[in-house]
Amino acid sequence: MEVMSSNFIHGFIDEDIAEGGTYYGKKVHTRFPPEPNGYLHIGHAKAVFVDFGTAEKYGGMCNLRMDDTNPTKEDVEYVDAIKEDIKWLGFDWGDRFYYASDYFEKMYDYAVELIKKGLAYVCELSGEQMREYRGDLSTPAKSPYRDRPIEESLDLFRRMREGEFEDGKMTLRAKVDLASGNFNMRDPVIYRINHMHHHRTGDKWCIYPMYDFAHPIEDALEGITHSLCTLEFETHRPLYDWVVDNISIDAKPRQIEFARLGINNTVMSKRKLRALVEEGYVAGWDDPRMPTLCGLRRRGYTPKSIRSFTDQIGVSKVNSIVEYGFLEHCLRDDLNENAARAMAVLDPIKLVITNYPEGKSESFEVENHPNHPEMGTRTVTFSRELYIESTDFMEKPIKKYQRLYPGNEVRIKSAYIVKCTGCKKDDDGNVVEVYAEYDPETRGGNTPDGRKVRGTIHWVNAEDCADAEIRLYDNLFTVPDPDSGDKNFLDYLNPESLVVLKNCKIEKSLRDAKPEDRFQFMRQGYFCADSRDSSPEHLVFNRAVSLKDSFKK
Ligand code: ATP
Ligand code: MG
User: Fold this and answer.
1) Calpha distance 532→548 (Å, rounded)
2) Are 420 and 408 in contact (CB under 8 A)?
3) Whole-angstrom distance, CA of residue 253 vs CA of residue 65
4) Which residues is 41 bridged to in the sheet?
5) Looking at the annotation, which residues are catalytic?
6) DSSP alpha helix (H) spans, 90-134
7) Smallest CA separation from ligand 1 atom 25, residue
8) Closest protein CA for atom 23 of ligand 1
């Protein structure tokens, strides 16, 4: 894969690895640290590309670390899914897969070290009191426990670990600066009591380190040189540095923050995505409407299109919301170039070529891609009865309509020119069959006399086509920002985000489509064989993206 374009982080790293820089002569080492409490989404993909992509650019390494210091909501299912998604994006952590919980013992020792140095103390303020005592810009925070003897804190901290106290009774706080203008530095809590089962350490621990204390230690222990994270951690950086500066550890990782990715017409918080799944608004984490990587993948997205998306939005210090249409634009670009063409009729009506002999059929070799002969050809069969799109016929044409209407000629893509002669209707006046005559001189769709035929329509052969279910998707939410306003985001769910067409007809070559195979269905859009529900007996295709690009640069 090619390397990312302009990116301010690279400027910082260039300085650090230049002669005289902190990391001169060292390998750049980053990490991607997801919390295993949900599936990765497109926002995480940006972080994955920043972390792994940076390591790749500098010939360095990137660790994959499950940030599982919070015992409340973690699950093995998520760990496996996260690994799979990162591999799918094309990255590899080699043998550098870690769990933050593996460092609990070391973190405890570092906490003890801080207490011994007079840099941490056990505080008995409740959460509510702590908020009350936190002060404001002109008033420092306070804690009556700040100057308790070191021995007393050591004893209490040990007993906290042993389970003597209930949740919330005490905390361990770093002794930093109660008057700091940065509230994160006002003696932050670094350990809390939580009698809860942990998915890996079980019931061994009932005290857990806070993120701001744990994360710099995890980074330092793994020898991370550059800890790349999102902007909300900027005001936590002084504490990050304080921790590594005050414990006995050699490594001094550098934290660099970049802007979070937001996309409109969707939600990206894992809590909200989980609610959509658990309350049954979508079919699962991999529902093709979800902004999760497994959802996008099932929808038909390619790793390449996601990389192109993250590359083009770039890495900056300014949070911004990207249009969903831009993500679609990137997919369309990729599939236009790389997806094989095929024909599928979504809303079929029969077209009978009345002057074509019954029982006869003929084959046409058609290219799989107009610009890529190396993608080969396939055979389509033409005969007396075809299926065409019902919208490709109008008994009484509207203005500028160039498809089938009595007396008009159209090209049956790659086959023949036909002239419409009429239709048959049922008792309710609905058209049930369309009639036409073909011109045998126009094999391949060419007119030997050079006469102009404006419309070209796609079709399938009635006799050997396959049946398929086709799922059309639209935005999951009807408004650009379902998170804003007073209403619950669920109130903005789009009732038409999924339309299922059960009666579609697809050309015979598509019978062999494998899960995740992607195609351009001519005149319709880009489609992907559904990885969960499609089988040779019941073919299911997802519309990944329509043909029309509404995105304006
Ligand atoms: P949530 O708040 O939804 O639970 P999170 O940020 O806590 O998400 P983590 O699992 O902690 O999710 O994220 C792992 C990494 O991915 C972090 O470094 C985080 O900064 C980054 N990340 C998460 N969301 C985004 C986003 N929208 N854009 C860029 N990076 C993101
Ligand atoms: Mg997080």
Assistant:
1) 27
2) yes
3) 15
4) 292
5) 35, 260, 270
6) 104-116, 127-132
7) 43
8) 44
Task: State the distance from the centre of ligand 2 to the C-alpha of 214, rounded, in angstroms.
Answer: 12
Tokens (6 digits) for 336: 């236009």
Q: Relative to the CA of 51, which ligand 1 atom is closest?
A: 18
Distance CA 387, CA 496 (A): 27
Which residue bears the tokens 């793994």?
222
**What is the spatial distance between Cα 266 and Cα 273, in angstroms, rounded to a whole number?**
10
Query: From the CA of 234, which ligand is nearest?
Result: 1
- Residue 304: both structure tokens together: 């390449």
- Dist CA 504 CA 541 (whole Å): 10
The pLDDT tens digits of the residues spanning 273-309 come to 999 999 999 999 999 999 999 999 999 999 999 999 9
Q: d(Cα 262, Cα 276) in Å, to the nearest integer? A: 18
Q: Does the C-beta of 439 come closer than 6 Å to ligand 1?
A: no
Q: Which two tokens stand for residue 179?
A: 């008057």
SS3 letters for 377-390?
A: EEEEEEECEEEEEH
In the numeric block, which tokens belong to residue 269? 């918080």
Which run of H or of E encompasses 539?
strand 539-546
Residue-wise pLDDT tens digits, 140-171: 999 999 999 999 999 999 999 999 999 999 99
Residue 46 and residue 265 in contact, taking contact as beta carbons nearer than 8 Å: no
Atom from ligand 1 closest to the CA of residue 261 = 28
